[in-house]
Amino acid sequence: MNYLYAFFLVFITPLSVPLAVWTWWQGWVSGLDIALAIVMYCLSGLGITLGYHRLVTHRSFQAKPWLKRFLLVCGAFAMQGGPASWASLHIQHHRFADKPGDVHSPVQQGFWYSHCGWVFKDYRPNFRRYGSWLLKDKDVIHVSKHYIFYSMLGLIIPGLLLGWVGLLWAGFLRVFLCIHMTWFVNSVCHRWGKRRYNTMDDNSKNNLLVALFTFGEGWHNNHHRYLQMPFLGHRWYEIDIGKWVLLFFKKIGQVSDFKIPKPTN
């Protein structure tokens, strides 16, 4: 199942790009198709960065039950695996960042393997060693157990709303773009960018372009320096849309307990 799923993500979803161009050329794409694609991309991306990453993996903040479940379901729309598996593999990445044991390090295994090749071989989460608490979280367990349903829901919704063109743009093309933007954090942000902090154990870098399309995840060197901090952009000019969304939810009382460390350098 893992190989089939990886094959779908790596080799089938890219076919949505020429098909999307063709439908555009034919004049079949409406403003609603594009709008829904943008909305689904935002929901998927925020589900990954806020739900899977900052909330579940690093426990950077607390969220009201409805919001936590909503973020995890949105994360499943991105088709990057269930929250338990995603978080466990990410914890392993931090444990061995850019050293043997890191499942997607371009320093260790090259750019393309770190970008997408690892999903064929190294997608083996070890919950006993990396994130044992994940299997005690009822919301994480629920979405992980029903991951296939929720991930397919991210395709069904556009299809039901706008037909096959909506499915193409807000479903398959959106998945292709979202998943590769996330993978760029693994590959690009450990190769190219700037380092604000001297994280001696890894090669993490900040990359503005990746940050813009991943709602802040591109500030990867910042993140490696302060793992539990809910804000990945540490300066006013570092665009972190995830941070702005969290501040909005805090203002209306839906999130709390931000883990803000005291800077040491």
Provide key terms for this protein.
single chain, 265 residues, mainly alpha, two-stranded antiparallel sheet, 12 helices, 2 strands, 2% strand, globular
The sequence of SSEs as H and E is HHHEHHHHHHHHHE
Beta percentage is under 5%
Major sheet:
2 strands, antiparallel
Q: How many E strands?
A: 2
The tally of helices reads 12
Structural domains: how many: 1
Account of the 3D structure:
The N and C termini lie far apart (46 Å). The protein has twelve helices and two strands. The chain has one domain. The radius of gyration is 18 Å and the shape is globular. It is an all-alpha fold.
Strand and helix layout:
Blueprint: H1 2-12, H2 16-25, H3 31-57, E1 62-63, H4 65-77, H5 83-95, H6 106-109, H7 111-121, H8 138-145, H9 147-187, H10 208-213, H11 220-225, H12 241-251, E2 255-256
Antiparallel strand pairs: 1-2
Helix pairs in contact: 1-7, 2-9, 3-4, 3-5, 3-9, 4-9, 7-9
What's the short version?
The chain has helices at 2-12, 16-25, 31-57, 65-77, 83-95, 106-109, 111-121, 138-145, 147-187, 208-213, 220-225, 241-251, and strands at residues 62-63, 255-256. The protein has 265 residues and is an all-alpha fold.
